[in-house]
Amino acid sequence: MKYLSLAFFIFLLQSCKKENYTELTKENGTTTKTTYKKGRLVSSEVYNNSKKLDSKYLYNNGVVVKIYQYYPNQKVNSYSYLHKAPNNYTTKVYYKSGKISNEGEGNFFKNKALYLRKGPWIFYSKTGEPYAVYTFTHDSENQYIKGEMLFDTIKKKIIRDVIFDPPILSEKETKEVVHLFNPK
Known about the structure:
Layout: H1 2-15, E1 21-27, E2 30-37, E3 40-47, E4 53-60, E5 63-70, E6 76-84, E7 88-94, E8 100-109, E9 114-124, E10 130-138, E11 143-152, E12 157-169
């Protein structure tokens, strides 16, 4: 009888578990809505201080598998999907018009909320034509440019092809790399 009572108690505890629920967390002017199904994290949405959706993360078994970031007008700014676990993502970034701005691969470090590009990235003009390929690397903290290839979109030829050795910090505009920061 003692074991039957214990089994019934465990059954009651399990039936009281939250299976499907949502949590709201407010921090630094943002609100995060976290959704659980069958007790597992399935999505989180981050809203800015204007209560507009800023980003959305979709999960599978606790791993971020898709990331959406939004402009204030709620159009998609970027879309990333898990290409290779644990943190290698393929990403497309869009202009506010909805046309593609650039695309490539990178690493998302969830614990740092940091996305760093790696490998070749194609950059497009606002008219939709590719005008550059930049090759990136990173050290898990900073992102660097290893190479730059620029196209003449009218003459359809390469006008610049440079390898930087050592790679240069991509956050800084330099005489060597200006096109990345001032697209046509």
